[in-house]
Design a protein that fits this description.
Helix content is 69%, strand content 0%. The protein is an all-alpha fold. It is elongated, with a radius of gyration of 20 Å.
């Protein structure tokens, strides 16, 4: 594989791969049921050390 072939591959399929990865990560963040995890992470700094979730 020459440099030009690799560059063409990275310009086309690499961009598609990175775009799909970005959309998957954004979708993972806004998935159903994730708000409880986000709320726990947001208030973790105020926890006094005792865990209430088990």
């Amino acid at each position: 594989m020459t440099y030009d072939e690799f560059r063409h591959f990275a310009d086309s399929y690499g961009l598609i791969f990175m775009g799909l990865t970005f959309l998957a990560l954004v979708g993972w963040t806004f998935r159903k049921g994730a708000s409880a995890h986000h709320e726990r992470a947001a208030t973790m700094i105020f926890d006094d050390g005792e865990r209430s979730d088990g």
